[in-house]
Amino acid sequence: MTKSLFDGFEEVSAKQWKQKIQFDLKGADYNEALIYKSLEGIDIKPFYNQEDIAENNSASHPSSWKNCVKIVVNSAIIGNQKALETIKKGAESIHFVISQEDIDPKNLLQHITSTTSVFIETEFLSPSYIQKLNDIAKEINLSIYILTDIISNLASTGNWYKTLKEDHASLDQITKNEYIKNSISIDIGLYQNAGATMVQQLAYGLAHANEYLNHFENTTNTFLKKTPIIFKVAVGGNYFFEIAKLRALRILWSTLAPEYNATTECHILAYPSYRNKTILDYNVNMLRTTTECMSAILGGADTIQNLPYDDIYHLENDFGTRISLNQLLILKNESYFDLVANPASGSYYIESLTKQMADKSLSIFKNIEEGGGFLNQLKSGVIQKKIKESAEKEQELFDNEKIILTGTNKYQNPEEHIPEFQKPVFPEKKVRKTLLPPIITKRLPQEIERKTVKP
User: Residue 235's domain spans which residues?
Assistant: First the structure.
């Protein structure tokens, strides 16, 4: 029998490695010279070994992933045509964002078969509309996931759709539709795009979800006991950290869910962040979205929805949509990113990041619950304040070129071609009456872009 290649090598402990490194540093301080301190409060070491892998640091990981294309629907007929065209080009899932209640769901979903998963997000809250979708799902055996998140609407706008009581009553009705695959989503992407650290994103996402768990625990609705919850997650450019973030999310959910007898499974719908996308040297956005989709795949997302490279300044268009879908098709069919299940498992570095991220997030989550829960801290402005502080730290690093966006705050083209804007690139402040201060999303390069763009 052939001996293992590694049998001829002695094991080297972390302590021995560190002693060797300190010797080679010739008096320089190990912590100052080689330890990188991240915004998440996680110290990055120069090396990792088996001692860095914690026991029981695992959660379920999907064996495969599906690509997804987002379509904003202002017309049922046009939305349906766009969906059928993208399905022909290789789309496995469609994410419809429906703007108005008068859009006929039957026309929107015609000729879409059960082989395509359909995610539906409405910009209004209507149990009767979801009932129509439920009837369609029953009639044609369509896999429909409803992305209802009344708390995210409160956090992003500062107001409920109607009132706290009415919104929760509508939510109760929506979750009773038996032919809908899922009815609740948790939008963690809101916190990422507003500048929260990854640890904060996970903690706030968990506390956000806990509000729904608390609500349903006090009702006869058994929805979450049998249905996996959907987490919408924005993925940024910190490659390995983002892989760990998604893995930590599954661990955290599998820890919280059993406390309410809810299913420990969850569905992660991941998409690239808006926070680091630019109008300067905008083609680089394609590289950013590619690596961010890679992080989502390796981190264990169930569904991955790419962001068109021109999404921040162009309206939805065939070219941008086609390129974004092709990026995912190349990753799956030509780069074989779907052939290995849980490829990050066993990586000393990623396992260590996952464990630390989960632990730190859980600690913040416990503090939120001790402080009265997520809604209470949202109403008092604590969550908004914490996110703003983190966003300002990240902005300072960007302004000082510690965080680099090529072509924007580094290596900027003096003859930059500014694309034609088809939608607002610099959101204007809207003065309106709100119950609480909304969480405001903001891209890192906005101020540099303002100075570069000529009036």
Answer: 66-350
Would you give per-residue pLDDT tens digits along the chain (455 residues)? Answer: 456 666 777 788 888 888 888 888 888 888 888 898 898 999 999 988 888 886 656 667 888 999 999 999 999 999 999 999 999 999 999 999 999 999 999 999 999 999 999 999 999 999 999 999 999 999 999 999 999 999 999 999 999 999 999 999 999 999 999 999 999 999 999 999 999 999 999 999 999 999 999 999 877 777 777 889 999 999 999 999 999 999 999 999 999 999 999 999 999 999 999 999 999 999 999 999 999 999 999 999 999 999 999 999 999 999 999 999 999 999 999 998 988 888 888 889 999 999 999 999 999 999 999 999 999 999 999 999 999 999 999 999 999 999 999 999 999 888 888 899 999 998 877 778 999 999 999 999 999 999 888 65
Q: In this structure, what CATH number is given to the domain that contains residue 298?
A: 3.20.20.240
Strands 36-37 and 303-305 come out as unpaired
Angstrom CA distances, 342 to 61, 257, 296, 347, 351, stand at 6, 22, 12, 11, 12
| Of 157, 21, 86, nearest in space to 439 by CA | 157
Residue type at position 321: T
CA–CA distance, 81 with 71 (Å, rounded to integer): 11
C-alpha distances (whole Å) from 321 to each of 132, 242, 283, 308, 347 are: 28, 24, 14, 6, 34
45 belongs to a structural domain: no
Report H helices in 25-111.
30-34, 76-88, 105-109
- Per the domain annotation, does 259 fall within a domain? yes
pTM: 0.94
Residues 307, 55: Cα–Cα separation, whole Å: 36
**Burial, 199: exposed, middle or buried (Cβ in 10 Å; 0-12, 13-18, 19+)?**
buried
What is the distance between the alpha carbons of residues 333 and 67, in angstroms, rounded to a whole number? 11
Is 214 contained in some domain? yes
CA angle 227, 231, 234 (to 5 degrees): 165
Could you tell me which residues come within 8 angstroms of residue 393 by beta carbon, excluding any fewer than 6 positions away? Answer: 39
Chain Cα centroid distance, residue 412: 29
Pairing assessment for the beta strands 229-235 and 117-122 based on DSSP bridges: unpaired
Distances (CA, A) of 272 to 236, 268, 299, 307: 6, 13, 13, 6
Whether residue 18 is contained in a domain is answered as: no
Structure tokens that stand for 46 in this block: 């120069």
Domain count, the chain: 1
Three-state SS at 342: coil
d(CA 83, CA 339): 27
Query: Are the C-beta atoms of 39 and 393 separated by less than 8 Å?
Result: yes
